[in-house]
Amino acid sequence: MVTDKSRVPTSDEFSFVRVGAFLVVVALFVFVSTKAGTRGVGFSMIMGAIFQQFQGRIEYGWEGRPPSGHITGWLATLLNLIFGVLGLAIMVWPEVAMGIFGWDIA
């Protein structure tokens, strides 16, 4: 079946990306340093915001169940911008983020 619509990826298709990102961040914390892991968290936040922006909505609800609803429109764009900026701040200033999160600076 061929359609003219551009295909929007679903959150199910990003689940393997989320698992991969989680494993990479854990590996950074365990094998490199807390600072590198914190930067990995920031990078994951930026990528998550980008994926959600391309999806055009933010799903919410319980994990493992269908979404309870979606945040769409300008509010979703604003929240994705905030998530992306926070992720960038965590990448640029990992020491501050580690202090806020209560992680040891090593």
Q: How is this structure best described in words?
A:
Helix content is 64%, strand content 8%. The chain is mainly α and 106 residues long. The longest helix has 22 residues, at 34-55. It has helices at 15-32, 34-55, 73-92, 94-101; strands at 57-60, 69-72. It has a two-stranded antiparallel ribbon. The chain has a domain at 33-101. The termini are far apart.
Which class best fits the helix and strand makeup? mainly alpha
Which descriptor suits the 3D outline?
globular
Low-confidence stretches: none
Strand sequence of the main sheet, in spatial order?
A: 1-2
Largest sheet: 2 strands, antiparallel
Mean pLDDT: 85
Strand content: 5-15%
Radius of gyration from CA coordinates = 16 Å
Query: How many separate helices?
Result: 4
| Strand and helix order | HHEEHH
According to DSSP, the number of beta strands is: 2
For the record, give the distance between the C-alpha atoms at the N and C termini, rounded to a whole number.
54 Å
Please estimate the helix content. 55-70%
Any chance you could write out the topology, listing elements then pairs?
Blueprint: H1 15-32, H2 34-55, E1 57-60, E2 69-72, H3 73-92, H4 94-101
Antiparallel strand pairs: 1-2
Describe, in short, the structure shown.
By secondary structure, the protein is mainly alpha-helical. The chain has helices at residues 15-32, 34-55, 73-92, 94-101; strands at 57-60, 69-72.
What key attributes describe this structure?
106 residues, mainly alpha
